[in-house]
Amino acid sequence: MSGIDLNEDKLKALKGIARDLRLDILDMTTKAGSGHPSSSFSAVEILTALFFGGILRYRPDEPWWPERDRFIMSKGHAAPLLYAALARAGYFDRQLLWQLRQIGSPVQGHPIQGMLPGVEATTGSLGQGLSLGLGHILGGRINQLDYQVYVLLGDGECEAGQIWEAAMAAAHFNAHRLTAILDYNKYQETGPISREMALEPLVAKWESFGWGVSEVDGHDIGEIMTVLHEVSNVETKPSIIITHTVKGKGVSFVEQDFTFHGRALKPEQAEKAREEISWQ
Amino acid sequence: MAVGAKAGLHLGAPMRDVFGDALLAVCKENPRVVVLDGDLGNSTKTELVRQNFPERFFNIGIAESNLVGVGAGMAACDLIPWITSFSSFLLCNAYDQIRLAVAMSNLNAKILGSHGGITLGKDGPTQMGIEDLALMGGLPTMTILVPSDSASMHAAVKAATDHVGPVFLRSSRVPMPDIYPAEDTPFEIGKANIVRQGDDLTIIACGLMVGTALDAAIALAEEGLQARVIDLHTLRPLDNEAISAAARQTGAIVTAEEHLLQGGMGSNVARLVAENYPVPMRFVGLGDVYAESADPDDLLEKYRLTAKDIVQAAREVHQAKIGSNL
Ligand SMILES: Cc1ncc(C[n+]2csc(CCOP(=O)(O)OP(=O)(O)O)c2C)c(N)n1
Ligand SMILES: [Mg+2]
User: Is B186 inside a domain boundary?
Assistant: First the structure.
């Protein structure tokens, strides 16, 4: 990846993509009558930066191109976001999005590897994606391919022991092409993280595990792109970008209510949400 | 048509809600009961305990191995922990902890596997527990309970809590038809319930499939076949007497379960039947396949877990019985 180009026009276009992804997520989940819109909304800018900001190298017409950069959605319940981004990137027909969670459709409630082009990993049982990412790095070494691997983690997900097993091993193997992106939206399923588990101090934890740590506003596409670009040049350790996000971002009444976790908006709520998102 | 409708039964509340109520009841009754959650209390309905007895409720977070270990430690302190999550996450993430810390240590811990089977529905195969009964079968000291309606869920939660030793209880997301009276529900660990009499063949089922089996029995009666229906709510210890009697007296057995056929209820029943009184058998359950995201009713249809599928198996097994008697 060469330098990044961050002019006003480009940022504006990316913001438009983010808005469109939110609308797709909304429509997919409301039509399905279930799913995790709030967890998907929270990471829209992250996937926008990765897929459409020129960070990831990929070929939609050759989805398993060996040299492609990998994106692993470890917080698999944000599948609607992954599917919306993959469709927009050209991996498959957008019409498939409206089949989310329908019988006979490849658009499963949680991602299943290979069921759709671009879906790199089977996730949905939390805690597993970072290990897979490390495997892709070690595999790349043997195959002499120097792609980057990006893994999106939930903050609640970081309660899982396997995350820390992977973190320790990634530093041990100097997996410097491995980048974890933490969707730090401060909520897990049953409540605020601060009430449920002592996850902090996160920066110190990751640093003590041998990772380089950056913190950004997870809804500022330009900031995310800048730091993603910076960490791709790090050669001594794996990197984690802690992105401060808002669960449900973009829809006021979802942002304010964590019990929206795992719930689709009803058609009348979706109408209000569409109105709000469309202005963004 | 809803499960149980053909048999004139009415759906109760979703089983997860019934479990929540039942758990709250045992917490009220016994101050030694504590509840551990894996950040799913809103789905498993253990949140009722959180609201009513916050000092006896612990959200261990999205960390199932730790969840089981902590629960085992509390069991070793003579408390009665209910260790709760979805069947899939809990058993698949923490099997070794369940194996050593709970089963091999023979501790008095209770494990709830919620959202068992494919009727978890639209969240899809990554979240479905379709191997939970087989996994629990691999733990010699584990009592395994699969209630089939609201009343038996209440009775099972109480029986599991009162029983001394490790217990696994499977629950579901969906409602099940009411089979038993709410008062004086017959429920004894290890003692199967005959919920319908009949002598032409026996359908042995657990969980949701008991209601489905009762529907099938009505359809079979219309064809002149009288099916006995057994609610095998306890998979360990298996009720050898009820199973052997069914083999001897009806000469043909269909098993039905919302689980993989491999290692499930049917295969365990078959072992007893083969050993004691071999008769023709057929098995209704999931073949070697992962299901998918969809509406529960559509999934039951597609993966052949309906009354129609039991009727088909029953006709076949009855034919085989007549054939073998010639
Ligand atoms: C191993 C495992 N345990 C429990 C769950 C159930 N579950 C699904 S999402 C979720 C909360 C996730 O919180 P977080 O990682 O913060 O993601 P967010 O939705 O906030 O983005 C839980 C507990 C799961 N999917 N996997
Ligand atoms: Mg979160």
Answer: no
